[in-house]
Amino acid sequence: MADRDGNIIAKNYGIGIPVEKENFHVKGMDHVDWGMKNRLSKIFNPNTGRTLMLAFDHGYIMGSTAGLERLDLSIPPLIEDADVLMGTRGALRSTIMPKMNKAIALRCSAGSSVLKEDMSHEIIGVNIEDAIRMNASCMAIQVFVGASGECQTLNNLTKTIDEGNRYGIPVLGVTAVGKEMERTTRYFLLATRIIAELGAHIIKTYYCEDFEKITSACPVPIVIAGGKKVVEAKALEIAYRAIQEGAAGVDMGRNVFQAENPKAMIKALRSIVHNGFNPKEALELYHSIKNEK
């Protein structure tokens, strides 16, 4: 059995050496079946290999969140520029028109609200049958590595991966960062690798120092989370750095729908993810759209 003591510290991450791909544009997914590749191709643009996700699943633990008081008003204007909508089944069914033809990252874990000190004891909140009914492109499960509920959330993850593999639906493993949990390179290296080794097809995590080590050491695509609201220029800078350092996409919520101009913000993020804009160019685009009459 592996022992955490006495190991040599990892140092050879092969940064800058791309993963060899056989015939598919998504990292580590050459050997999955046709249906799963089809769903992954809705998530990751085949031309760029990247994705821009719009997360609005915050209500499942936060309730009514600033910018999401009326999902039916705040989200539809942003759909055009997103590749993927990340939401709960309740929000999707009640507020998003089914004729919308975007990939769906369906929130499938459920747990305690932000009023609880420890939110790590989540359960599987959506079964595979309803994920199929929702036409989910992937199923999102939150994992609390290092928290008291770690084993329970890893169990949720592996059960969902087993079901997803059975029906060709990828699983998005989301690294959680609770109040007492680290937000360090060391922590994210551990959490992302555990989630990938257990079979997740995509991982959502946070940008941090030495981020290129995390993307290099993870055998499947990493999409960065936006986290708390920051000024628009900083959010665009984080998105750009993450992409340059190996991220396959950006999944932002509060930094879009809480922006001064959400429509301009999601277009600016898209310019970084898919069009190669740098932060200065993206910010100029943001202001030009914001200032349009």
Description:
- The protein has a single domain, classed as Alpha-Beta Barrel (TIM Barrel).
- 38% of the residues lie in helices and 14% in strands.
- The protein has 12 helices and 10 strands.
- It has helices at 34-43, 59-62, 71-74, 89-95, 128-133, 150-167, 185-197, 211-217, 232-244, 254-257, 262-275, 279-290; strands spanning 51-55, 84-87, 103-107, 109-110, 123-124, 138-143, 171-175, 202-205, 222-225, 249-252.
- The protein has an 8-stranded parallel barrel with strand order 1-2-3-6-7-8-9-10, surrounded by 6 helices. The chain has a two-stranded antiparallel sheet with strand order 4-5.
- Helix 7 runs parallel beside helix 8, helix 9 (232-244) packs parallel to helix 11 (262-275) and helix 9 runs antiparallel to helix 12 (279-290).
- The relative contact order is 0.13.
- The mean pLDDT is 92.
For the structure shown, list the relevant keywords:
alpha/beta, 10 strands, single chain, 12 helices, two-stranded antiparallel ribbon, 293 residues, 38% helix, TIM Barrel
Explain the layout of strands and helices:
Blueprint: H1 34-43, E1 51-55, H2 59-62, H3 71-74, E2 84-87, H4 89-95, E3 103-107, E4 109-110, E5 123-124, H5 128-133, E6 138-143, H6 150-167, E7 171-175, H7 185-197, E8 202-205, H8 211-217, E9 222-225, H9 232-244, E10 249-252, H10 254-257, H11 262-275, H12 279-290
Parallel strand pairs: 1-2, 1-10, 2-3, 3-6, 6-7, 7-8, 8-9, 9-10
Antiparallel strand pairs: 4-5
Task: Provide a brief overview of the structure.
This protein has a single domain (44-290), classed as Aldolase class I (TIM Barrel, Alpha-Beta Barrel), CATH 3.20.20.70.
